[in-house]
Give the backbone structure.
Amino acid sequence: MLRLCVSVLLLVSGVSGEAREPDWGFQSYLDEDYTLSCNHTSLMPDPYNAVKWELPDGALMDRGTEKYMLSNGDTVINMHLTIKNVQEMDKGVYMCHVYQTYNMAQREYRGRLLRGLNIGGHKYRDPFDEYRYNLMVGGLAAVALFVPLVTVCFVYKFRFQVG
Ligand SMILES: *[C@@H]1O[C@H](CO)[C@@H](O)[C@H](O)[C@H]1NC(C)=O
């Protein structure tokens, strides 16, 4: 039983909680602009395709605002969405819809791409900040797991000695 306890403790301490962005996810710094592009090997806009961006709250961007800037790729209309001065609350799943032509009357839908921003957390300018943050989170998680485990192990051991 003691060996089992030790193995479990080692196992738990070896588990790292590193956050990974999915293939469609992107990480930005805070307080800086960040540009999402509507392109992926699964859906490459052709020349003169038009892109329509959808914000995490579902709002469709028809034109740029103070917060969101739309810009063309070489020949692709509204290929890029720039989020100005990215903040914590800008994280989420953005979507871009690709249309065959910009003529609204006869546009043809080609598909959509997900563009996640900072879903697993934003980037840190000072790597030490992130290290410190991870250390803190890891430390808290470790304490939260270790205390009950150690208690269980001690209680079990103590029971044997008494019995
Ligand atoms: C998409 O476009 C951006 C900016 O033009 C470029 O940096 C990136 O490599 C492109 N990605 C793909 C998958 O083509």
Q: What stands out?
A: Residues 37, 39-41 surround 2-acetamido-2-deoxy-beta-D-glucopyranose (CB under 6 Å). Strands lie at 25-26, 34-37, 50-54, 60-61, 68-71, 80-83, 92-99, 109-117. Confidence is low (pLDDT under 50) at residues 12-21. The CA atoms of residues 117 and 146 lie 33 Å apart.
